[in-house]
Design a protein that fits this description.
Elements (H helix, E strand, L loop, with lengths): L2 H13 L2 E3 L2 H8 L3 E5 H5 L5 E7 L5 H12 L5 H12 L8 E6 L3 E6 L2 E6 L1 H4 L3 H11 L4 E7 L2 E9 L6 H10 L3 E5 L4 H11 L3 E3 L4 H13 L4 E5 L5 H6 L2 E5 L4 H5 L3 E3 L5 H17 L1
Helix pairs in contact: 1-13, 2-13, 4-5, 8-13
The structure holds adenosine-5'-diphosphate (ADP) and magnesium ion.
Length: about 290
């Protein structure tokens, strides 16, 4: 192919919201045999909404939600957004927070109303039998659960639902039909990730992966001789995008993810990956 025909192809792709950094990216993309997808914000919409609060014993649900919202008011995580919105909608009292800390991929902690608050996953809080019992039915349906402790004692769980993008199933079907190995990679809980994977027909799931381990997963696959494309949206995903043979960023995600990527899907629509594959094949056939 002439540089002209490559430019024409990438120009057409750009008009459809698929930004390709350069011709080398298309060449690398044609060789890819494994596609790794971040779950939240990539396979799913990434804008969770709160669907349930459950508490341990007789603890008040509004108390759990208000304390959770107090710490999440200082966090920028999409889960935080869902919790703060719901507490506001219910008109719950707000609390000033001191000693606020973010534990990347785990949750948040702080002190409010004289009480130590911790909100997050098992990596942050461990998991007590009563919290697991509350959480399991929701996880089995693919919903994300975060747990709250007050002064170290389990208080309750908050459940958020993050729907799969309407465009995801067809894109995964097309990519699997091409013979690509598809892997889901997520910081979310294994049971939740499994349920979402089953609904999408995916069998290879790597869950409970901390942000700084995501790149290691990609590097391991590459060491095994795979050619890996990684699609992600978050700050957490940037090192994994950079480690991949081809990094694919969602345009609905963070700027840092887009800077680490060879391909950016402006609309966050995974159908763009199918189109980019087709483009890479056309361009490479013309070159050879
Ligand atoms: P993902 O890989 O799905 O993008 P993250 O690495 O951002 O997820 O977070 C992984 C998990 O850590 C979340 O599913 C949640 O359980 C917990 N977590 C992270 N940040 C927060 C927060 N601000 N509040 C509550 N839980 C959090
Ligand atoms: Mg994410």
């Amino acid at each position: 192919a002439t540089p002209m025909s490559i430019m024409a192809g990438t120009g057409r792709a750009a008009r459809e919201g698929i930004l390709v950094r350069d011709a080398a990216v298309l060449e690398a993309f044609e060789s890819v045999d494994t596609l790794v997808f971040d779950k939240t914000g990539t396979l799913t919409e990434g804008r969770p909404r709160l669907i349930a609060v459950r508490t341990v014993g007789t603890i008040d649900e509004d108390r759990v939600l208000a304390m959770a919202a107090a710490v999440e008011a200082l966090s920028e995580h999409p889960i935080a957004d869902a919790i703060v919105r719901e507490a506001k909608a219910k008109g719950l009292p707000t609390h000033a927070v001191s000693d606020f800390k973010v534990l990347n991929g785990k949750g948040v902690t702080g002190t409010a109303d004289g009480t130590a608050i911790a909100l997050g996953n098992a990596a942050l809080l461990g998991e007590t039998p009563e919290l697991t019992a509350l959480a399991q039915p929701y996880r089995d349906q693919g919903q994300t659960v975060v747990s709250l402790t007050l002064d170290g004692a389990p208080a309750g769980i908050i459940v958020v639902a993050d729907p799969v993008k309407t465009t995801t199933p067809a894109a995964l079907k097309a990519l699997t039909a091409e013979g690509l190995n598809v892997i889901m990679l997520t910081g979310d809980n294994t049971a939740t990730a499994q349920a979402v994977a089953v609904s999408l027909g995916l069998t290879d799931v790597r869950a409970d992966v901390l942000p700084d381990q995501k790149a290691n997963v990609i590097e391991d696959l590459i060491r095994q001789g795979r050619k890996v494309a990684m699609a992600g949206d978050g700050v957490n995903d940037a090192p994994a995008l950079a480690a991949a043979t081809v990094g694919i960023a969602m345009g609905n995600g963070t700027d840092i993810a887009m800077e680490s990527a060879g391909i950016t899907l402006i609309r966050g629509d995974l159908g763009g990956i199918v189109k980019a594959r087709a483009l890479s094949r056309v361009v490479m056939r013309n070159i050879k």
